[in-house]
Amino acid sequence: RAGHVAVIGRPNVGKSTLTNALVGAKVSIVSNRPQTTRHRLLGIASFEAGQLVLVDTPGLHRDQGKSTASAMHRMMNRAARGALEGVDVAALVVQAGRWDEADAFAYEALSNAGLPVVLIVNQVDRLKDKTALLPYLAKVSEGRDFAGVHPISALKRNGLEALVETLLKLV
Ligand code: GDP
Ligand code: MG
Prior knowledge:
Layout: E1 2-9, H1 15-22, E2 40-47, E3 50-56, H2 69-80, E4 89-95, H3 101-112, E5 117-122, H4 133-141, E6 148-151, H5 160-170
Parallel strand pairs: 1-3, 1-4, 4-5, 5-6
Antiparallel strand pairs: 2-3
Helix pairs in contact: 2-3
The structure holds guanosine-5'-diphosphate (GDP) and magnesium ion.
Binding site for GTP: 9-16, 56-60
Organism: Marilutibacter aestuarii
Function: An essential GTPase that binds both GDP and GTP, with rapid nucleotide exchange. Plays a role in 16S rRNA processing and 30S ribosomal subunit biogenesis and possibly also in cell cycle regulation and energy metabolism.
């Protein structure tokens, strides 16, 4: 198995840390899909079961931190215009305990583009009250159709195995 995973999320949620945690030293095998200029290659994560080509979709989430209506519009338009072409699955990275407008709009844009969206709830190690995680996951999942929900710590490398398993099933 091999496929493209768009890594999406607000600044500082841990996208780079996650990418680095997933991408090992083995970067020799490239997927059979053509790499388009719409994407910026972040890395290739190789596992026994397959490869995940991690890509950034420039413009899709760069403005999310601002949380303004116009930034949202630009993001939705770009998604609609095909910024996600060639992407098999979207990995929406959020910070545990936090879910704001930008995250909600990113989900909308990605699922409207027809992509399975895997929610990655990162930085769970920073949660002071661990019992807050379940209600948070319930709140965020309500009314949304995530292809998977994975609480992880990219920094401490917790939860990555199950996440990879989910992603490989979707590519
Ligand atoms: P990006 O902007 O989404 O690419 O975020 P980065 O990967 O650059 O991470 C932003 C900051 O969050 C850095 O200081 C990381 O060390 C930190 N960070 C990322 N993942 C985790 C995590 O799982 N736990 C903790 N405690 N910090 C994290
Ligand atoms: Mg980064």
